[in-house]
Amino acid sequence: MNAIQIHPGDTVAVALSPLSGGTSVLGVILTEDIPQGHKFALQDIPSGAAIQKYGLPIGHATRDISAGEHVHTHNVKTNLAEDAVYTYEPVKAAIPAPDGPVPVFQGFRRANGRAGIRNEIWIIPTVGCVNAIAQKIAALTSCEVRGSVSGVYAFPHPYGCSQLGDDHANTRRLLASLCHHPNAGGVLVLGLGCENNAIAGMQEEIGAYDAARLKFLCCQESGNEIEDGAALVRELIAAAADDRREPLPVSQLVVGLKCGGSDGLSGITANPAVGRFSDMLIGFGGSTILTEIPEAFGAETLLMNRAVSREVFNEAVAAVNWFKHYFVSHGQVVYENPSPGNKAGGITTLEDKSCGCIQKSGSMPLVGVLPYGERIRTAGLNLLYGPGNDLVSSTALTAAGANLILFTTGRGTPFGAPAPTVKISTNSALAARKGSWIDFNAGTAAEGESLDSVARRLFDYVIRVANGEETSTERLGARELAIFKDGVTL
Known about the structure:
Blueprint: E1 3-4, E2 12-15, E3 24-25, E4 28-29, E5 39-41, E6 50-53, E7 56-61, E8 70-71, E9 76-77, E10 104-109, E11 115-116, E12 120-125, H1 131-141, E13 152-154, H2 165-179, E14 184-191, H3 199-206, E15 214-218, H4 225-240, E16 246-249, E17 254-259, H5 270-283, E18 287-290, H6 300-304, H7 310-329, H8 340-344, H9 350-357, E19 366-370, E20 381-384, H10 390-399, E21 404-409, E22 421-425, H11 428-433, E23 440-441, H12 451-466, H13 472-476
Parallel strand pairs: 12-13, 12-14, 14-15, 17-18, 17-21, 18-20, 19-20, 21-22, 22-23
Antiparallel strand pairs: 1-2, 2-5, 3-4, 5-8, 6-7, 7-9, 10-11, 10-16
Helix pairs in contact: 1-4, 2-3, 5-12
């Protein structure tokens, strides 16, 4: 199979491998070379007519397009606009009974009932002014880990002061949520002393906590903040060192879903395989979280109509409209996407990208919508406020409680979130070329392996990661944090 018509009603097909002009593919003669992941017309398409892919319009033809012709940015334009009216048209999306016994993984049972897949010590600055101190403390104490503690990690960021309104609240809420993350056996919150996001406010946002597992240090009140910080980290190491992995049901796993550097195969291989994985995990009682809301524009109704109630539907509509307003309020059009790399990989319009992106959500009901920085409350498929930016949205997924993140990519990227970030390639060429970045190859779905088979392999791999197998980002040391910003910096 060298090309695929995804839906019977599609007017275009996608090349699964590079195709040469003059050859016959799916009943048409190609009029030119078609790169892998790119589209070609299956019939004559008149100017102004819809371009159908995934059974949905992904734009319209800007001129007459002949059967066999390359269909891309040179002859297609988006249909998207800033305004849309959404009507709740519920789609039955029942959760199937588990297929066999609930699988288990070897995880860390936390006192609050959550399950961790790592036992790390995290240092979280309240403000960017103390980033260097946090990194120095982490470097000083990393060699002192023992028992089941696998490392000490600092998460620098530029915020926590000179922010107003929602930006300040978002920063504090996100950092507080990270303090509760089950992959952290202990957390040191490191403050300066004069910042807006002061330790007292952080403590209020954090709420109840175990003083043996969560420590605070104000640098301006310390005679030697590095020595004092290192002493507190040693206490956290001692408290967590005897934690032991034990068999836990996968119903306690929370997995974030994200894509970046997408290509024309993303919506055909990796993303639908992740969607099937999500369905499997939820079928066993687990949870997944989808974000990057602007990258659902044009396909949002496919998710909204799976909402379990009108209330959840309305919350999903509010999330989409908030991000549309965010674009418009900054003088930007909502469809200023895909990126140059996306286009080079075969994605033409935002609808094209969104229809592929939404495949990661699978087919399960949408049970909840999470504000930015908040933690998951309901088991099942959740939607989280977050932009398309890879690190910002992956940080938000971590703060929401994701034990790990499945990140599909057709172009490749080495970044990592605070939680283990599994890189899934959409094509085998990327997996072969960037083996140090890619953890799992879903490109085999374009070479004959069924999506169900890929999903089962992915499920097995996720269990191995949950059991402690390192991802490529962990081996690289890529553990980064980024915070969403919308307003004024003083």
